[in-house]
């Protein structure tokens, strides 16, 4: 019954603090209007233990039965965002509350905003909970592995509708400020339940928000108020530290600014951060060095599969100046013996993935050296997951992976279930169209396990996937973490 579902949703809003009690009637009427309904019956119903996912499902089923929306995941997502927006305060109210709490502490402010972003269903808790997560211990520390299941797959009808949809340049991209409150369309997600916190970094206007697909605790995005492309430069390091000074319990990092080694969105300047300590941040420095003129900044090589320089000190300006010096040196650096080329045929290859944080009261900046050169043998990139690993991970190694968290494709969930069956039943993997790509890999590790049972096979597959991810990161390292690699790394450091 529509009235009962609306009553429960409004009660959810009041219980979570999204909706004040004094707006109960107003909110009820907003929701009725979405259903073109003139009548409301305030009947008794159980208002204890309200589960948002269940209430929304009932409301969406009702919208489908009334012909208000088509019964497809895309249209349902557009409509339930509209439903949730009826419960929410205006952006100015959220901003006011955030900065009031900030005066108490930055942690209080982000705690409030993170909970709000979940309660509002902008972060869909029930979808994020579906993500598969585990860890694997390696020589570099404990890596995080996730199989991302929180992004819903579009159905054929919605794909066709998106293809036929009128081209639009508004919002310019998924990271533009214009997304706040946008109703969405078949080829652009709804953001009516989205609220952005404005922040000033490097004397310019930026937005602070959370990722709707939180891959780790308080996974946030900091986006330029203007639609300008990603660029790694001196000001990048300043922006990172400006944010970290505002929120010292958060790290903030940037994807690189070149294809292959960059992230999925290079058209809009943005960073990612959060309240989480990755394996990379815990990794020790294995070799220290000094740069002339910057003796006051601690510098060292990090024990990590990718090639990382860590800078540390109590003056962020000095770290920024040194980071800029290293960036410029790396941009122009060629070492043919180590297969490092600054450019080929006019195409630049060298750039940096930087991550800033506070550590024991000091400013800390990790600079990950990246190179996107391709060859006939490695057409997707020499310092990219190699072809023999594509059955697990083919996508670019961006900031999140660099720090030690694998974001693996959803297809792996079903493929691993199928693989389990074949292994336990001792079937030929190469006889199966889906599993044949995993055959070489499985045949390489299975002899190492004398006893494989239904009880231990999940753990075995998880650990072996983790080992593949570790190899993926090693492939992405411009200098390998071995004697010859470190020797070549020190050669670069010698020119600084």
- Morphology call: globular
What is Rg?
25 Å
- The low-pLDDT segments are none
Sequence of strands across the biggest β-sheet: 3-4-5-7-6-13-14-10-9-8
Q: Which structural class matches the secondary elements?
A: alpha+beta
Give the N-to-C terminal Cα separation. 71 Å
* Strand residue content: 15-25%
How many β-strand runs? 15
Query: Roughly what percent helix?
Result: 25-40%
Mean pLDDT: 95
Number of helices: 16
Q: Please describe the biggest sheet, giving its number of strands, its sense, and whether it closes into a barrel.
A: 10 strands, antiparallel
List the main descriptive attributes of the protein structure presented here.
alpha+beta, 496 residues
Task: Please describe what this structure looks like.
There is one protein chain. By secondary structure, this protein is of the alpha+beta class. Among the domains are: 67 residues, no CATH class; 69 residues, no CATH class. It has 16 helices and 15 strands. The strands form 3 sheets. It has a 10-stranded antiparallel β-sheet with strand order 3-4-5-7-6-13-14-10-9-8. A hairpin with a 2-residue loop joins strand 3 and strand 4. Helix 1 packs antiparallel against helix 3, helix 3 crosses helix 4 and helix 5 packs antiparallel against helix 6. The chain is globular. It starts with a helix and ends with a helix.
Q: What's this model, at a glance?
A:
By secondary structure, this protein is of the alpha+beta class. It is built from 16 helices and 15 strands.
């Amino acid at each position: 019954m529509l009235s009962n579902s609306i009553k429960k949703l409004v009660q959810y809003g009041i219980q979570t603090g999204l909706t004040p009690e004094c707006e109960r009637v107003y909110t009820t009427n907003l929701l009725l209007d979405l259903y073109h309904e003139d009548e409301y019956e305030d009947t008794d119903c159980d208002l204890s233990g309200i589960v948002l996912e269940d209430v929304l499902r009932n409301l969406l089923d009702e919208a489908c039965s009334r012909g208000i929306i088509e019964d497809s995941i895309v249209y349902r997502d557009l409509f339930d965002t509209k439903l949730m927006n009826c419960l929410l305060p205006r952006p100015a109210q959220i901003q006011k509350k955030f900065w009031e709490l900030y005066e108490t502490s930055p942690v209080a402010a982000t705690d409030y905003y993170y909970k709000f972003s979940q309660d509002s269903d902008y972060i869909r808790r029930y979808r994020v909970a579906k993500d598969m997560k585990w860890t694997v211990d390696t020589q570099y520390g404990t890596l995080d592995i996730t199989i991302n299941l929180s992004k819903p797959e579009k159905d054929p009808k919605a794909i066709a509708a998106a293809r036929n949809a009128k081209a639009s340049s508004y919002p310019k991209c998924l990271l533009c400020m214009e997304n706040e409150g946008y109703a969405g369309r078949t080829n652009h997600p709804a953001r009516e339940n989205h609220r952005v916190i404005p922040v000033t970094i490097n004397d310019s206007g930026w937005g602070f928000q959370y990722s709707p697909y939180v891959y780790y605790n308080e996974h946030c995005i900091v986006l330029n108020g203007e639609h300008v492309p990603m660029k790694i430069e001196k000001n990048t390091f300043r922006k990172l530290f400006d944010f970290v000074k505002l929120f010292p319990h958060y790290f903030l990092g940037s994807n690189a600014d070149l294809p292959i080694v960059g992230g999925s969105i290079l058209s809009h300047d943005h960073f990612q951060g959060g309240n989480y300590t990755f394996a990379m941040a815990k990794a020790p420095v294995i070799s220290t060095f000094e740069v002339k003129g910057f003796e006051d900044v601690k510098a060292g090589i990090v024990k990590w599969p990718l090639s990382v320089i860590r800078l540390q000190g109590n003056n962020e300006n000095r770290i920024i100046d040194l980071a800029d010096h290293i960036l410029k040196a790396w941009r122009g650096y060629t070492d043919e013996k180590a297969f490092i080329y600054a450019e080929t045929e006019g195409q630049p290859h060298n750039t940096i993935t930087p991550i800033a944080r506070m550590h024991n009261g000091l400013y800390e900046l990790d600079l990950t050296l990246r190179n996107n050169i391709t060859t006939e043998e490695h057409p997707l990139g020499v310092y990219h997951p190699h072809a023999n690993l594509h059955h697990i991970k083919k996508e670019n190694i961006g900031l999140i992976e660099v720090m030690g968290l694998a974001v693996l494709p959803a297809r792996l969930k079903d493929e691993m279930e199928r693989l389990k069956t074949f292994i336990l039943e001792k079937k030929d993997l190469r006889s199966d169209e889906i599993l044949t790509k995993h055959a070489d890999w499985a045949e390489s590790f299975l002899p190492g396990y004398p006893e494989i049972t239904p009880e231990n096979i999940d753990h075995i597959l998880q650990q072996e996937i983790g080992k593949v991810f570790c190899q993926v990161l090693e492939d992405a390292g411009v200098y390998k973490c071995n004697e010859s690699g470190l020797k070549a790394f020190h050669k670069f450091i010698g020119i600084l």
